[in-house]
Amino acid sequence: MKVLHIVGARPNFMKAAPVLRALKGRSGVEQILIHTGQHYDAAMSDVFFTQLGMPEPDLNLAVGSGTHAWQTAQIMTRLEPVVLEHKPDWVLVYGDVNSTAAAAVVCSKLLVPVAHIEAGLRSGDRTMPEEINRLVTDQLSDLLFTPSADADENLKREGIAPSKIRLVGNVMIDTLVRLLPLAEEQAFNGLPERYALVTLHRPSNVDDLAWLQALLKTLTEVSKDLPVVFPVHPRTRERMEEVGHLNCSPGLRLLEPKPYLEFLALQRRASVVITDSGGIQEETTFLGVPCITVRENTERPITVELGTNRLVGRDLSALRTQVGVAVSMPATRPKPIPLWDGHAAERIASYLAPGC
Ligand code: UD1
Question: Is 340 helix (H, G, I), strand (E, B) or coil?
Fold first, then answer.
């Protein structure tokens, strides 16, 4: 059996790594790893392959950055001949980035079966490019591997046949479970004992420059009481340069994007995490670290219902209040989320390659 994995952007890598490992143990399975090149900086890509123990991609399509239409079209144009050449039995696509949706469109038109890993998540917000990618990918996929029961319900509501849906759990948590012991060994020079960890990269937060400035002002205020550690995504850095906000106050420490292990260690030790990322809402829930999400909605409601996540939208005084609540809260044991147990990828491998 031949399986083609498509990855392209930072959040894909920690999802694909455990599936590659699980299928590697199955006899008769040939795996081919294609990197679209959506993310290309070493700090956004290469370092993840190294730390996650992933094989070098067999091919990099080197698409680079561009508008959504341009980038999606480039991925489709460059991927089509590769799929035709390899004639895979399954193409695996991950998450909700442009590479995911582009690959699903290409393969479904070539009648090549597509399996979507992390299917069924919905924010209900079609202004998010990722929501469009999720809707398109799920409609076109032949097998939909979901991380939680709410995702199954979303898919059924959209008319996806239940026979295509498999609730397997969260592959990103597989990677976290495997690498947390290594992350615990990471040493940092001069890291304060208590700090807020911040990540921001959603267009809705960083491309609206007036809002970005207001948000940075609030983070600067927070940093007077609680040091703020902020690894800055390239998109965000560009925007911060535009608004002239790179010379920050002493409590606000701007860093380069962090590799997987360092970032996991930073999350683990943080008093609170302030983010607009999807994956970080899940990782903080698993770790039991309070998370404040600067978004109006989430495609991961389980992190609010069972986890540590609080949505504050554009309410900056709620953000300040939630930081206060988080730092004064006694540490509690995180509630386990069903099937977020480190074995989701093995369940996927059993469905894809039964008897191998
Ligand atoms: C993409 C995903 C988003 C994911 C995020 C994680 C889509 C629609 N968005 O957003 O879901 O949460 O990745 O990081 O697929 N850039 C670099 N170096 C790189 C990559 C990007 O400098 O290696 C800069 C470029 O200026 C680029 C910008 O970042 O234009 C945005 O990159 P892009 O991949 O388009 O979107 P992200 O914001 O990273």
Answer: coil
What ranges make up the beta strands (E) of the chain? 2-7, 30-35, 59-60, 90-94, 114-117, 143-146, 165-167, 196-199, 228-231, 252-255, 272-275, 291-293, 309-311
The CA 22 to ligand 1 mean position distance, Å, reads 28
Q: Which of 38, 98, 123, 275 to mutate to test the pocket of ligand 1 (most atoms within 8 A of CB)?
A: 38
| Structure confidence at residue 158 (pLDDT) | 98
**Residue type (1 letter), 47:** V
Domains, in order of start, for the chain: 2-169+340-352 (3.40.50.2000), 182-328 (3.40.50.2000)
Average pLDDT of span 4-19: 98
Give the pLDDT confidence of 65-115 residue by residue, as tens digits. 999 999 999 999 999 999 999 999 999 999 999 999 999 999 999 999 999
